[in-house]
């Protein structure tokens, strides 16, 4: 059974950090291309970055470059999103997308507020 499950969201103060995780089961993890997206209230879903699990190469949206880092652990079939220096504008539901197949997780809420 294929599953894509995000975790690690929560509430944090401005300037804080969070690390999100996306666990995939039922697929050959090392052959996947995985991405993080987020969707803030009233806004379209925004791509944040992508990682190629085979070689670990990454690309980032300019809006988060330098603050967010995507990594993966092939042995744990998990992709991570390390988010630093968070601002209230980072408040959103964060989603993991798996390709091929364009499979989505259920999302995890991140709230940045003082």
Can you give a write-up of this model?
It is a single chain. The protein is an all-beta fold and 114 residues long. It has strands at residues 3-7, 10-12, 18-25, 33-39, 46-52, 58-60, 68-73, 78-83, 92-99, 103-104, 108-112. The strands form 2 sheets. Strands 2, 4, 5, 6, 9, 10 and 11 form a 7-stranded mixed β-sheet that branches. It has a 4-stranded antiparallel β-sheet with strand order 1-3-8-7, with no helix packed on it. A hairpin with a 6-residue loop joins β4 (33-39) and β5. The radius of gyration is 13 Å and the shape is globular.
Structural class: mainly beta
What is the beta-strand fraction?
Answer: over 45%
**Into which percent range does the helicity of residues fall?**
under 10%
Which spans have pLDDT < 50 for at least 5 consecutive residues?
none
What is the H/E order? EEEEEEEEEEE
Query: Helical segment tally?
Result: 0
Q: Tell me the major beta sheet.
A: 7 strands, mixed
Gyration radius, to the nearest Å?
A: 13 Å
Strand segment count: 11
The averaged pLDDT comes out at 97
Rough outline:
globular
- Note the quaternary state here: single chain
Alpha-carbon distance between the two ends: 40 Å
Which descriptors apply to this entry?
four-stranded antiparallel β-sheet; mainly beta; 114 residues; 11 strands
Task: Give me a quick take on this structure.
By secondary structure, the chain is mainly β. The protein is 0% helix and 53% strand.
């Amino acid at each position: 059974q294929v599953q894509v499950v995000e975790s690690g969201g929560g509430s944090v103060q401005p300037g804080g950090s969070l690390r999100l995780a996306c666990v995939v089961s039922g697929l050959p993890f090392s052959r996947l291309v995985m991405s993080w997206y987020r969707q803030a209230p009233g806004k379209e879903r925004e791509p944040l970055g992508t990682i190629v699990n085979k070689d670990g190469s990454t690309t980032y949206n300019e809006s988060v470059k330098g603050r967010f880092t995507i990594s993966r652990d092939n042995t744990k079939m998990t992709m991570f999103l390390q988010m630093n220096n968070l601002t209230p504008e980072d408040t959103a539901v964060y989603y993991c997308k798996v390709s091929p197949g364009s499979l989505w997780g259920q999302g995890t809420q991140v709230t940045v507020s003082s």
